[in-house]
Amino acid sequence: QSKITSVHSPSLPLQTLRLVKSASELALMRRAGEIAASAFREAMRATTPGLLEHQLESIMEHSVKMQGAQRLSFPPVVAGGSRANCLHYIANNRTLRFGCPVTE
Q1: What pTM value is reported for the model?
Q2: Which of 31, 53, 56, 27 lies closest to 41, judged by CA?
């Protein structure tokens, strides 16, 4: 029976492996980018005063799923008005108003 004399972190070798992408991984990443871009464009077209932030989030999620994705890759930040500059804002409960910025 052997003794373990030291333990090394796998972080560096794993990070190095992550730099190399196969053709199929690159294709999936490109497709994911295309789906996200399309969903953002659809959400921008749908943005109107009176729409609720969570409704805009729903439009994005619907668009992504209708294009073949199983789910969003990240929780969307949909923030209007004074909340548009809040990082990691998740309430998504405000009504969008005319002339106010929206972060999607």
Answers
A1: 0.75
A2: 56
